[in-house]
UniProtKB/TrEMBL annotation, chains B, C:
<dbReference type="InterPro" id="IPR005893">
    <property type="entry name" value="PotA-like"/>
</dbReference>
<feature type="domain" description="ABC transporter">
    <location>
        <begin position="9"/>
        <end position="237"/>
    </location>
</feature>
<comment type="similarity">
    <text>Belongs to the ABC transporter superfamily. Spermidine/putrescine importer (TC 3.A.1.11.1) family.</text>
</comment>
<keyword id="KW-0547">Nucleotide-binding</keyword>
<dbReference type="InterPro" id="IPR027417">
    <property type="entry name" value="P-loop_NTPase"/>
</dbReference>
<dbReference type="GO" id="GO:0043190">
    <property type="term" value="C:ATP-binding cassette (ABC) transporter complex"/>
</dbReference>
<dbReference type="InterPro" id="IPR008995">
    <property type="entry name" value="Mo/tungstate-bd_C_term_dom"/>
</dbReference>
Automatic annotation (TrEMBL), chain D:
<dbReference type="InterPro" id="IPR000515">
    <property type="entry name" value="MetI-like"/>
</dbReference>
<comment type="similarity">
    <text>Belongs to the binding-protein-dependent transport system permease family. CysTW subfamily.</text>
</comment>
<feature type="domain" description="ABC transmembrane type-1">
    <location>
        <begin position="86"/>
        <end position="300"/>
    </location>
</feature>
<feature type="transmembrane region" description="Helical">
    <location>
        <begin position="227"/>
        <end position="247"/>
    </location>
</feature>
<feature type="region of interest" description="Disordered">
    <location>
        <begin position="1"/>
        <end position="21"/>
    </location>
</feature>
<keyword id="KW-0472">Membrane</keyword>
<dbReference type="Pfam" id="PF00528">
    <property type="entry name" value="BPD_transp_1"/>
</dbReference>
UniProtKB/TrEMBL annotation, chain E:
<keyword id="KW-0472">Membrane</keyword>
<feature type="transmembrane region" description="Helical">
    <location>
        <begin position="239"/>
        <end position="259"/>
    </location>
</feature>
<feature type="transmembrane region" description="Helical">
    <location>
        <begin position="12"/>
        <end position="35"/>
    </location>
</feature>
<comment type="similarity">
    <text>Belongs to the binding-protein-dependent transport system permease family. CysTW subfamily.</text>
</comment>
<feature type="domain" description="ABC transmembrane type-1">
    <location>
        <begin position="67"/>
        <end position="258"/>
    </location>
</feature>
<protein>
    <submittedName>
        <fullName>ABC transporter permease</fullName>
    </submittedName>
</protein>
<feature type="transmembrane region" description="Helical">
    <location>
        <begin position="179"/>
        <end position="202"/>
    </location>
</feature>
Amino acid sequence: PASDDGKKKGESKDPDYSKKEKELIFSNWTLYIDVDDKDENKRPTLDRFQKESGIKVKYNEDVNDNVEFFGKIRPQLEAGQSTGRDIICFSDFMAGRLIRHGWAQRLDPKNMPNVVTNMEPRFRNAAHDPGRQYTVPWAGLATVVAYNKKATKGRKVTSVEQLLTDESLKGKAAMLTEMQDTVGMTLLDMGKDCTKFTEDEFDAAVARIQKAVDNKQLRRFTGNDYVEELDKGDIAACLAWAGDVVQMQFENPDIEFVIPQKGYLYATDDLLVPAKARHKANAEALMDFYYDPKNAAELAAWVNYICPVAGAKEELAKIDKELAADPLIIPDEKMIKAGRVFMELDDDAETTYEDKFSKVIGA
Amino acid sequence: MSAEQAAGVTLTGISKTFGDFTAVQPMDLSIPQGSFFALLGASGCGKTTTLRMIAGLEQPTAGRVMLGDRDVTSLPPHRRPVNTVFQSYALFPHLSVQDNVAFGLRRRGKKQVHKEVEDVLELVELGPLARRKPAQLSGGQQQRVALARAIVNRPEVLLLDEPLGALDLKLRRQMQLELKRIQTEVGITFVHVTHDQEEAMTMADTIAVMNHGRVEQLGAPAELYESPGSAFVANFLGQSNLIAAEISAAEGDELVLRAGDTKLTLPRDRMRATSAASGTKVLAGIRPEKIAIRSRSDEAAVPEGHNRLTGTIKDASFTGVSTQYVVASPWCPELAVFAQNVESAAGLTPGAEVVLHWNPAHTFGLDGDQDADAGTGEDAL
Amino acid sequence: MSAEQAAGVTLTGISKTFGDFTAVQPMDLSIPQGSFFALLGASGCGKTTTLRMIAGLEQPTAGRVMLGDRDVTSLPPHRRPVNTVFQSYALFPHLSVQDNVAFGLRRRGKKQVHKEVEDVLELVELGPLARRKPAQLSGGQQQRVALARAIVNRPEVLLLDEPLGALDLKLRRQMQLELKRIQTEVGITFVHVTHDQEEAMTMADTIAVMNHGRVEQLGAPAELYESPGSAFVANFLGQSNLIAAEISAAEGDELVLRAGDTKLTLPRDRMRATSAASGTKVLAGIRPEKIAIRSRSDEAAVPEGHNRLTGTIKDASFTGVSTQYVVASPWCPELAVFAQNVESAAGLTPGAEVVLHWNPAHTFGLDGDQDADAGTGEDAL
Amino acid sequence: MTALAPPPPAAPEADAPPPPPPGGRRKLTPYWLLLPAILWLLVFFAVPMFFQASTSVQSGSSGEGYELTWHWANYTDAMSEYAEHFGRSIMYAAAATLLCLVIGYPLAYMIAFRAGRWRNVLLVMVIAPFFTSFLIRTLAWKHILSDGGPLVGALDALHLLDVTATLGMTEDDRLLATPLAVICGLTYNFLPFMILPLYSSLERINPALHEAAQDLYAKPATVFRKVTFPLSLPGVVAGTLLTFIPASGDYINAKLLGSPGEQMIGNAIQRQFLNVRDYPTAAAMSFLLMAAILIIVTVYIRRAGTEELV
Amino acid sequence: MRVLTFVRRNLVVIAGTLALGYLLLPNLVVLLYSFNKPVSRYNNTWQEFSTEAWSDPCGAPGICDSVGLSLQIGLLSTLAATALGTLAAFALARHRFRGRAGVNSLIFLPMAMPEVVMAASLGTLFLNMRIEFGFTTILIAHIMFCLSFVVVAVKARLAGMDPKLEEAARDLYAGPLQAFVRVTLPLALPGIAAGAMLSFALSLDDVIITQFNSGPSTITFPMFVWGASLKGVPVQVNVIGSAMFFIAVLLVMAGQLLGNGRARRKS
Ligand SMILES: Nc1ncnc2c1ncn2[C@@H]1O[C@H](COP(=O)(O)OP(=O)(O)OP(=O)(O)O)[C@@H](O)[C@H]1O
Ligand SMILES: Nc1ncnc2c1ncn2[C@@H]1O[C@H](COP(=O)(O)OP(=O)(O)OP(=O)(O)O)[C@@H](O)[C@H]1O
Ligand SMILES: [Mg+2]
Ligand SMILES: [Mg+2]
């Protein structure tokens, strides 16, 4: 409801200089945009956007970690200063936190016809941003179980349970340092609803993970770096993000993934315009550009994460049939149904849970 | 030091105190212009401190420093026309020999220094080594660079703080001659600090003997040597035999002393003790080389009127040029005697009974209250 | 060195080569047991290297080292009954004086060392300083600790590598006496390296003079001094006047030499040149202290049969004990003459015409092919 | 005595030149020289410590912000919750320091006494790895220690891994994600900090002392034990401190080479600060670590008897 | 038997060489893999020899910017730390003054402090002061922790320097400033250079303090590697790491040779 939004603390109309300044500063995760096969410094879709719109994009791959990055820009946000960025790509829970603090600018649908028409319906509403007033999904993330066939000596790994208890995986299983993913998947495995859980349930899940840690079942908690170790076989099985798995499969036939019976965790990485950003309209232009199915398909073909744009499947098929059929990129019905979103947490709950989780991962 | 000579350096009531330790007692000192002046003294007696006050590297606690007629007491070192040759040379290791030598000239704004540097290096015979770094030179060569670096500035006074201390004996003797030659050639006032008495005597026109922060005696080398004013000077400048005695009578120009059961004669004008009254305790001094030594059997040949002592040779050591005897006589356990080796002296071996004798004119008399061992080096340990 | 004495150290055909530089030429050397043996030579002549081969700190390139009857050539240093007093003392800075001294004893497994350490510290007169660290000692005291640390082990041979080099003159003379006393007391073979010839002469029973890696001459100090075998020895051990001459005739026990227009006589048995035929070039040597100097006006007093030369005094320098003259004579530009200062010599000032004369028995003859300046120190610069 | 009677005590006379200005410009010189550095350290080292001290007794949440409430419980909480981390940090750092000493000593010794004209080249080799980023090198270790790698294979074949496994240093025939890997990583990272001070104190030893010891019947081993080592103690003390202190606060090695069971206090501080954003806890842990190190270092220096560290 | 004696004689050299090997092994691996041509994003198995990455070291997006930033920060912080540290070292080595002990420990303390502690406390300061994390904050932090190392290096050099040399300069008509510029400074230079080199190395290498105090868009080379390590390290990282290693070694060795050569020519 629009009346509410005005009251969100700290929100005010920030002046937009898009008309005068045809430029845009974009902070994204590393390796999260298509690059030219021959020249890694060229980014085809982005280059095309710049050419078509006449907006010069300064593209930074400086997001490695939601919380860490948020910590770095937080002082400016709190002080009501510009973060020096017009678009930031945050995971949904972090985007939610910015919205709650009033540190994200409300987007104008009028500037984004493609978004309005092409966004997959299931993305149109989200717990952290009801009605998608502030954010636009860049990609969908599915947290699944992946394993290296060679390292498990052919054994299949099909569940989180197996990661936590299977003797044959002792010292070779890994989970993620992201609390949402690891605890969420464990909760699902325990038959709990990760979209709505109690603190006791959370504690039980953490205790379960702790036991695996104590048994030396779990080798490490990783960020994105599980990829390298899974590829090498130092990690035999782990929680993984779908997009990574797809990419790994190109290169390593031993990599397999499984969508656990009990469900998987599902999230989005969202683009948002932080408070005091100078070029909101330019940002909206870029978001709109990437919601053109053709552009979206091109992006998805490279990053291999779930594409939130309707109609991209057909475009993708033109590029690569196999990819278009991969449920990890364009999910099928079954896949969509098995996905769960982690519960929306307020700041205090998040601190409490993060703190508990920190102890499990050893830090 | 005669009054008609122009003074090169005059120190007036100068003293230096570090905390509550007085390194240099208030003293006056006047160094004639163009002379070779030596400051001699044991380690720690304040020689370096005195020199540093002249150079301006140390501010005197009291007193004034004059160069010629100019009071320079409050001038910083770089404004004084004085240069120093340091004991450890203090050559700049990062500069070549010629740059070391040119340093002072350049600081005074000279642009064309080549000629002067070349000349002075010629003077110290280092021309061919001008481009070397100090580390590539031998000790003697470094010493000469240090000297060249100082004299090239034609200072009014050149201060030398034990410049030869680090050299070995042979080299040292040679550098002494060299230094003397250069001083004669350039005519600058040299103030030379050393604790090698032979060095001081061969080189200097005037010697000041320092002890515990004060000048004990000052004079020409031969004067100091022949008539030392105190036990310290007598022992420190060369070796002396100091025999404890008592004045027993005065006969005309001579004093008669009694040491044990021996009678010694001493010219009255060579008596330095304040009182010459009978019964006064004195030290009767005689230099080892002044004493003739002969076998007891040969006693008859002792000239009439000579002071004589009898004793036993405790030790005889051959040093090449001379033989040094240590003779024990009843009231003087260790008398040193030097005999130049001309003809080999038969029978003068340890254990031999001998008679020592000397011309009384060579005897000198000192105040008997002093420590007869002052300045022998025993106290330095 | 008489053959009947037991050999303390015997070096047989020993030599040492560093890369392509030969530091010690093959040489034989036998050091009598219980003697005070001095190795004398200019800097770099191989003294230290020889000593280190005896200590086992350097492996000889060829030859053998025997201690008594035992071949120790291949024994490592810690297995040889030999100790060294190093030039820089090499005291262990982290250990107290007594622990330094006890070091060797403890390494040989002695538990009760207290008594021995105490005794040896008594010997070197350092008892009260036993608990100090080396840094808290003066140079002379450190030197004595180094000595005590070595002799407490009662080694068969004690090696001393310029142990007094770092001390100042006065202290050095005193330590020489001390060392000599201690050697006499403990009776150990001392092999003492020095380049101070006076030190070697006063202390040693036997001296070996080394030059460029070989022993030039070996003998008792007086023997070496009075009859040097080469120009190097003559100049290095004391000072010598070497006059280029030619044998003109042989008369009985004497050779008659001609130098310019002067006739000099030389005892045949003091002629070291291989040939004594007429016309042979020789260097006629005479020590400065053997020469008497008198005024030309006084010429009549020259004893009959003395060698005599006439000349002009170029320089006279007073050193206290003696006066050193430099006399120019037509065919010998710089003759040194030492005259002990007994009675002051009137008229012997620079410029004076003098006659020099000496007993021909003191003349020595050397091979005329040598550089007359060898060993004077001029070549060391 | 000569006639040089001492003049009356040195009271400056009217015409005497003025004594040098007491305390003038020269006395102030050191303060001017120090001013910039000290100011810098005060503002960016001492003041932050003060801020952290105040932060460590704040309470609140990352969402609502923290305020100073003298919440001392932060310390007790940190102490009780992270006791294991503290213990592990100290132990790993100590083990790494010991290893550094054992590995670094021969190298420092070799450079000081046996390297001849290679000395400077070797010294550069010791520092040069710094120029290849620490992270790259640690990642390279990950590579070298990899489960399927040749090193694990070789050690396994020699049954060395069984030995370390019984000691609890490794797990399941692997090196990565074990205490051993973390300790080796720490050792590797801080080795230059051990070698440099060791070298500089060894280099100062007069080689004649070695010869003197041999001459006094000491076997080579005894020479080392009785002379070389005691004389290098200042270097040992400086080296162990420069290794132990940073190692105890490191988190990179534990993060990259360790498993959850090997995380150190640095990891906890880093996560509390950068991820959980619980600044008070992070600050309290920092102070506890500082205190622990201060105590250990003080005791150690007392025992080692060396005041002169640098 | 002979082998045994050889081993015994050269035990130290063998152990030292092994230690050196341990120290350089990772560099060797880094170098080796800089010539790899990985088929995937992950440069962790040997594929085939290629100099591709060497011919295009900036091939990975952002890498050269980060190297540039690192060099910039390294140079600036070295410059500042060396200047401040040298001044302080002079004060400590050449003057006795009140409060010397306190100053000494303030300077020593940063070395006696784990990096996280410093990093966190400095981070706290910046947060409290609402100072934007970025270039300035990194620079400030680097200068702070390099400072102590410079002071120690320069102080050691000055302590070994004969104070007589300065007196000699003053005696030779050099005023205080000239004595400093002409004599003291050139002689202290090796110490200053050592301090500078160490601080440059430490700055280039630093992860921990940088991580706590860098801004979102100031990615130093180590921070770039940190980010890349999560996603797959490009070969170019190995190239740049190896290149920096070799450049450092070569520069120092060239300086060495130059010095030797000059000395030899002079003699
Ligand atoms: N800066 C100083 N602070 C305190 N005491 C000093 C200082 N400089 C010299 N002294 C003391 O003053 C005394 C005289 O020192 P000085 O250097 O003048 O002696 P010296 O005669 O040159 O001795 P040496 O022959 O050993 O060089 C010594 O006892 C010395 O310890
Ligand atoms: N380890 C070495 N390597 C190469 N040359 C050496 C070595 N040790 C000594 N030398 C050379 O051997 C020669 C003899 O050296 P040694 O130390 O024995 O001389 P020395 O007579 O003791 O001289 P000094 O009186 O200066 O001590 C010298 O020229 C020296 O340079
Ligand atoms: Mg002095
Ligand atoms: Mg020698």
